């Protein structure tokens, strides 16, 4: 289940230490830099990162 609001996406990004991003109107995320989630034991990524 993907996150459906900008507020929920912002909370998720904060929890995983992702900074320097823009949340687009279609709720995809543009990140300026690298995103390393390899040590987070995620089964599913709940956002669309571009």
Overall morphology:
globular
| Side-by-side strand order of the widest sheet | 1-2-3
Q: Give the number of helices.
A: 1
**What kind of assembly state do the chains in view correspond to?**
single chain
* Mean pLDDT score: 91
By DSSP, the count of extended strands is: 3
For the sheet with most strands, the description reads: 3 strands, mixed
Radius of gyration based on Cα positions: 10 Å
Terminal CA distance: 18 Å
Query: Which percent bin holds the helix content?
Result: 10-25%
Helix/strand class: alpha+beta
Q: Which consecutive residue ranges, at least 5 long each, have pLDDT under 50? A: none
Write the layout of secondary structure elements.
Blueprint: H1 6-15, E1 21-23, E2 28-31, E3 48-49
Parallel strand pairs: 2-3
Antiparallel strand pairs: 1-2
Q: Any overview of this molecule?
A:
With 50 residues, the protein is of the alpha+beta class. The chain has one domain (6-49). 20% of the residues lie in helices and 18% in strands. The chain has one helix at 6-15, and strands at 21-23, 28-31, 48-49. The protein has a 3-stranded mixed β-sheet with strand order 1-2-3, covered by helices on one side. Strand 1 and strand 2 (28-31) form a beta hairpin. The longest helix has 10 residues, at 6-15. The chain is globular. The model has no long low-confidence stretch (mean pLDDT 91).
